[in-house]
Design goal:
Layout: H1 2-6, H2 16-19, E1 22-27, E2 32-38, E3 43-51, E4 55-60, E5 63-68, E6 74-79, E7 85-91, E8 98-105, E9 108-113, E10 118-122, E11 129-134, E12 147-153, E13 156-161, E14 164-165, E15 171-172, E16 177-182, E17 187-193, E18 204-207, E19 210-215, E20 225-230, E21 235-242, H3 243-246, E22 249-257, E23 260-266, E24 272-278, E25 284-289, E26 295-301, E27 305-310, E28 317-322, E29 340-345
Antiparallel strand pairs: 1-2, 1-29, 2-3, 4-5, 5-6, 6-7, 8-9, 9-10, 10-11, 12-13, 13-16, 14-15, 16-17, 18-19, 19-20, 20-21, 22-23, 23-24, 24-25, 26-27, 27-28
Amino acid sequence: MVALLCGCDASPPRDPANEGNLFVLTTDFESGAFSIVDTETREAARNVGLTHSDAVARVRGERVYVVNRMGQDNVTALDIDNGFRVAWQRSTEPGSNPQDIAFASDEKAYVTRLELPTVLVLDPRDGTPLGEVDCSAAADEDGIPEMSGAAVDDTHVLLAAGRLDRDDSYLPAANGALVVIDATRDVVEQVVELTGENPYGDLYLHAPGSVLVAEVGRFGVLDGGIEDIHWADGVAGGYVVTEEQLGGDVSAFVSAADEVLWVVVSDPSNVTSLVRFDRADGSVRTIVIGTGFTFSCLARVDDGTLVLCDRTRTAPGVRLFSLPDGVELTERPIDVGLPPWQIRVLE
């Protein structure tokens, strides 16, 4: 009878908390947590741990580094192999509002802080502070460059500077900038002025010496786009695609092939869509439209799956799409507890 009930397969059930490949930050902007999703079984281990209600994350090796923003102001390292337990936690300074973390090596990481003109350098193995890099050369008149997104290209750290006006609701005060730090000396090597204002979200490395940056300008106004920055040459290469072409602000994007970008677009009425942009022929195709400001993030899994955060109030969760055609694979969003905010692929 037991054999009949269990079937012929004696394999133990997969546990997405142990075998899942997606780390999903969730939030209702009052509380925050993280869940783990297994895209093979489409199951989720919900609320595996708690985070700040305003957090972002990065994955490196066997750890997830959660950047808890304004109000908690710390970086927390989670040990994947130990059930995502806290390995260490380090303050970034009260009120500093950390935004992102990038890794120059296994021994050196850089944390951007929106409220300070310096980048914090720390040892990602145990959180030991290693110093700071002064980036005030990229600032607007208030002396603070408002640094957010970060990435590493070989021996250089790339940081997005918003140059926002603190006396005017943090609206853009000038064109944004890309700050380039020489990680071997921890000095600012150059500052590249962007074509548009207010760089937003992740920086996407797509070729040596080149990075794609979303520039949203003023939210609700079609005044930005996604720009290709040839930072090694100190040149802002101009928009690959504009917000006018896409039909709204760029909330998030990923590259799924050399010539294709998948973009979450928020139109002037704050309705979000998943859009496919083909750089080869300039075509824009809307894949799915949300019911409001419901889509918040994208991620690409190496097996050819695109993952979308859907914060729809009645049925929030994670949705999967096939690449390169954009056909949805999920009949309904995978429930991850609180509405999903950011997805990172586990290594």
